[in-house]
Specification:
By secondary structure, the chain is of the alpha+beta class. About 20% of the residues lie in helices and about 25% in strands. A hairpin with a 2-residue loop joins β8 and β9.
Length: about 260
């Protein structure tokens, strides 16, 4: 049988989601906990492999298992075996043709930075710190050139191994909430470091160093060397993965965990 789960985690202590043999990873912890509850070895698949330091409130995984448990038993039992910075948030039995990655239709990320002269205390691992003045409206306006299906070569990392860089960005929103600036972006899929590279470039527009036309030129050039620096990993969250309704997964726009900002 196949089980799907919603997962949230604080990624700042981990080397990323993907299984590692010599470093802590989210997948390692989940597979270890699930194997105990299932009483058999478990290998999971995820909707998106987040990088080192990146967190999630809406990650989705699936796995196959022989031993039956009801949804509540999977939820409560697995959480007792996980470290306190990883949690299962929901569980569903799903058809065998469901796939956490390939059945997904969109991914949504939020990037949260604290824009102040002082460093964060309570949220020290949950946001990035950027000092100085930033024009949120200028960043919001410039970000709209990224909408639609385009080649995002200018915003992928050198380590990206995808065969092509075409992605379909559904929306990009930039907003301020007090001392926090939030970047909200959804696409069908993302390239390696794509969100952080977009944020890093928009911040150059926001601080007045660059303008909207510069971003357009960088976008058109399909050259990563021309874009802005990669934004810090702290502050990036995978907040939602969208699936077709017939999978009957408990995923809604408001399910962003602690991202109340």
């Amino acid at each position: 049988m196949r089980i799907a789960m919603g997962i949230e985690y604080s990624g700042w202590k981990y080397s990323g989601f993907q299984r590692q043999y010599h470093a802590p990873a989210i997948q390692n912890e989940l597979e270890k906990a699930l194997s105990i509850i299932a009483a058999e070895p478990i290998e999971i698949k995820c909707a998106g492999r987040t990088d080192a330091g990146v967190s999630a409130t809406g990650q989705v995984i699936h796995f196959d298992v022989n031993n039956e448990r009801n949804d509540r038993a999977w939820l409560l039992g697995t959480n007792t075996k996980l470290p306190n910075d990883i949690a299962v948030t929901w569980v569903r039995h799903v058809p065998d043709d469901f796939h956490a990655r390939f059945s997904a239709r969109a991914r949504r990320y939020r990037y949260i930075l604290q824009n102040s002269d002082y460093r964060p205390g309570i949220l020290r691992a949950g946001v990035s710190l950027y000092r100085g003045e930033y024009d949120v409206q200028a960043m919001e306006d410039a970000a709209q050139i990224l909408l639609g299906e385009n080649d995002f070569s200018s915003f992928k990392s050198a380590q990206d191994e995808n065969p092509h860089a075409r992605r379909n960005v559904h929306f990009v929103k930039v907003m301020r909430r007090g001392r926090y600036i939030i970047f909200d972006i959804q696409a069908n899929a993302f390239l390696h470091h794509m969100v952080r590279n977009i944020v890093g470039s928009l911040l150059l527009v926001g601080n007045g160093e660059k303008d909207k036309q510069w971003l357009q030129d960088v976008f058109d050039a399909r050259n990563r060397d021309l874009a802005g620096p990669t934004a810090q990993a702290e502050g990036l969250y995978l907040v939602k993965v969208t699936y077709e309704d017939h999978w009957n997964l408990p995923i809604h726009d408001e399910d962003m965990g602690p991202l109340w900002i």
